[in-house]
Structure formats: C-alpha cells, structure tokens
Amino acid sequence: MIWTLLGGMTLATVLTGAVLGAALGLTGFAVLYFFSGGATNLGVQAVWNTFNSYTLTAIPLFVLLGEILVASGLARNVYRAMSPLFARLPGGLLHTNIAVCTLFGAVSGSSMAVAAAVGSVAYPELTRRGYDRSTVVGSLAGGGTLGLLIPPSLSLLIYGAFTETSIGKLFLAGIVPGLIAAAGFMVWITIHSLRRPELAPRNLEPAVGLGQALKGLFEIWPLLALIGAVLGSLFAGLATPTESAGMGVAAAIILGFAVGDLTLAGIGRALMSTVTTFAVIAMVFMGAVILAQSISVLGLPQQLLGQMAELGLSPLMVLMAIILLYILLGMVFDGLSMMIMTLPIVFPLLTGLGYDPVWLGVLITLLIEIGMLTPPVGMNLFVLVGMSNNQVTLGEAAKAAFPYWLVLLSVIALMTLLPVLATGLPGLVRL
After folding, report:
1. pTM of the predicted model, to two decimals?
2. CA neighbor of 65 nearest in space, from 279, 253, 193, 215
3. Is the N or the C terminus of the chain less surrounded, counting Cβ atoms within 10 Å?
4. What is the largest CA-CA distance in the chain?
5. How far apart are CA 86 and CA 90, in angstroms?
6. Three-class SS string for the chain?
7. How far apart are the C-alpha atoms of 246 and 49, rounded to whole Å?
8. What is the C-alpha separation between 368 and 148, in angstroms, rounded?
9. Sign of the four-CA dihedral 200, 206, 209, 214
10. CA distance 402 to 118
C-alpha cells in the first residue's frame, strides 16, 4: 500500500505540472507527514545537511568548466591536430570525433558540453568533406557520452555526494570502462565504414606522414594542461574535487584567452548557463533528498529486500530488472534527474544485495549515457540535431546512434561479468 501511495503521489504531482524536484519533495513531505507522525522537519534537516556539504560545491564548478570549453573554441585546434592520425583508417575523421570527445571528456563532466564543443567543429568540417550527415551526428552523439563517464564526471560527482561514496575512487573507476567504450565505438566505425565506404570518403583526406602527424599533436598541449590541472591535482592528493574543479576553471579561462577565442561576453554566457543548469540540478537534488529521507524513515528498502528474498530473486535478476527500468526511464527523463530520482531506492537495494557502491556508480552512469542516446528525450541527439540546423532529423540521428547505444550496453554486460574493470584502479590507489 505504501509503495502504491508513494508512486501515486509522485505521479500526481508530476501530472499537475510541478517540476520533477518539487514533485519528489512534495511526495517526501507527504509521506513524512502522514506516515511518520508529521515529522516533516526530518526532510528539512536532510536538505540542510546535504547542501551544507563542501563537496557539493564542485558541481557548479565542473559545469562552468564545460561551458568555458565550449565558449573558448579550444576544440578546433585539438581537432585539427588529431585529424591526421586517423585520416587513413576506414572511417577517417569519424575516429577523430571519438578521440577528441575522449580527450574533452577528461576535462568536462558534461556529455552535452562535449558533444556541443566537438560537434561545433566536426560537423561542418566532415559534411564539407562529403561524409554522410547522419553518420557524423551518430558518432558525435556516441562520443559525447564519454564526457559523462571519463573523469571528471558530473554524474559520478553527484552520485558520490548523494551516496557519500569516495569521489576520487569513482573518478578512477570510470577510466577503464570509458576507454573500453571509446575503443568499441572505433571498432564499430571501422566495421561500418568497410561495409559502406561511401559514408566516410577516404580519398578526400590529405596525405600526411606519420612524423608530421605526431608533430601536430603538440597543438593539444592546452587540453593536456587542463587534464593535468584537474585530474593530476586530484589523483595526486594535492586537491579535493572542489579545489581541482576550481583549478580547472582558472586554467580554462587563462588558456581560453591565451590560445582560444574566449571573451568577457563568453564568460558571462558561460556563467549564466552554469547558474541555470545548476539550479535545475539542485532543485531535483533537493526533492530527491527529502524523498530519500522519507523512504529511509519508513524502512522501505529493507522491506523490499525481504520481499525479494521471499520470492527467491537472485541479485543478478534484480540487477537486470533495474537495468531495464533505467533504459525505460531514459526515454522520458534526462539522465541526471533520472539518477537522482531513483537513487533513494536503487542504492540501498543493490548495495544491500552485495554490489560494490563504486561499481554501481559507474553502472548507473553508463545507463545514463544510454538515456542520452534514447529518443524521445535523448539530449545528445537534440543538441546535435539542432547543431545540424535540422539537416538531420531526430529519427535519423537516433538510428545512427543506435550502434553506439548497443556498445554501451555491451560495456555494461562486460563490466557485470568482470567487475574488476571498474573496481581495479580504485583498489590500487589510496584515496
């Protein structure tokens, strides 16, 4: 009865037009009021304790870092420097899309920011060279998801703050699965381009020697400097996540003025976009914290675990059900909202079944990435369709991105079979 009321109240508040954060918060307060003797102060105290956390201040800083990267135009020089390395491979510059997205993922925690930064350079360049438009959009949509997995990751940061899991370990855990996903994307591009060479015409690529191509890599030093400022300081134990994010923002501004196209107006737009983005995240986060407190007071996760034990469901069967749930939710919710909304139930449920919290954070991030490619709310698809000036329809973009969707699902399967892919690096480093 409680589960039915909980779901019904959340659905009712959503259908009234309330934003998701308000819907979650009102549902949590209603549960506390009616089922916990009117102890709504517990929800208020939970919000205060969470938002009084120093770690949470890293979220707007990482959002700002991604916005400054988009505004500075640094992607153009990096893309030009890396293009000759992949020009002769089947798929040509489609591989460059994945490689540059991987690098930008190491300095930006936002999937959409990476897709926008690289797409603004890659889409006009590749379409000018005769590449198939939808194929280009598909590769950028898939590559953009790496921004959410390869550290610093906004998803892993929020997960760590919400579940009190080590953010440093979460960042380390995302590296190997992220690189595996990038390699899987490149394998698909190679296979697809060999089957249909007309999608990526190799004969239009300039012939560049290996020595000249390697020499051109010196142009990516601004991005490497940013990676060193953000991840180097964090993994070396010299800075907290918040401090490393602050160092990254400062370095991005300096490099944006020195070698990019950053202006004061660009910084202003980046700040406004950051405030808007964080306000949305904070609203959902606040509502989820109140709901989590009400669920905890009622002991619903423990009841759910007991019922599953009675039904004889194995931990793997429960995990598969959760994966399916996230895939379905990814069709109607944006990734971060979906994660924050479900964590109050999913986290205690799966950790109670013995799943590692760090491993679980990477799994949920991969599921969020799948949601970024799933219409009708696949945000990466919308960003790139808009960037193409609607030369590519949402349906064409979704079809082109579907193989990358499958690659991400394959990484989940591989990580389930070999959890050490996510837990290996965090286990070697003391953070």
Report:
1. 0.79
2. 253
3. N
4. 75
5. 8
6. CHHHHHHHHHHHHHHCCCCHHHHHHHHHHHHHHHHCCCCCHHHHHHHHHHHCCHHHHHHHHHHHHHHHHHHHCHHHHHHHHHHHHHCCCCCCHHHHHHHHHHHHHCCCCCHHHHHHHHHHHHHHHHHHCCCCHHHHHHHHHHHHHHHHCCCCCHHHHHHHHHHCCCHHHHHHHCHHHHHHHHHHHHHHHHHHHHHCHHHCCHHHCCCCCHHHHHHHHHHHHHHHHHHHHHHHHHHCCCCCHHHHHHHHHHHHHHHHHHHCCCCHHHHHHHHHHHHHHHHHHHHHHHHHHHHHHHHHHHCHHHHHHHHHHHHCCCHHHHHHHHHHHHHHHCCCCCHHHHHHHHHHHHHHHHHHCCCCHHHHHHHHHHHHHHHHCCCCCCHHHHHHHHHCCCCCCHHHHHHHHHHHHHHHHHHHHHHHHCCHHHHHHHHHCCC
7. 23
8. 8
9. negative
10. 20
- Respond yes or no on whether the N-terminal peptide bond of residue 206 is cis (omega within 30° of 0): no
Over residues 320-362, the pLDDT tens digits come to 888 888 888 777 676 777 787 788 888 888 888 889 999 999 9
Could you report the per-residue pLDDT of 276-305, keeping only the tens digit for each? 878 877 777 777 777 777 776 776 666 666
Instruction: Report how far apart, in Å, the C-alpha atoms of 355 and of each of 33, 62, 101, 274, 330 are.
Output: 33, 28, 30, 34, 22
Q: Which two tokens stand for residue 345?
A: 């139930």
Token pair, residue 60, equals 């707007």
Could you tell me the two tokens for 413?
């399967």
Q: What is the pLDDT of residue 183?
A: 93
Residue 103, token pair as written in the block: 């690098």
CA distance 330 to 323: 11
Residue 317: count of CB within 10 angstroms of its CB:
12
The number of residues making up the chain comes to 431
Exposed e or buried b per residue across 330-350, where buried means at least 16 C-beta atoms within 10 angstroms of its C-beta? beebbbbbbbbbbbbbbbbbb
| Residue pair 174/359 in contact by the 8 Å Cβ criterion | no
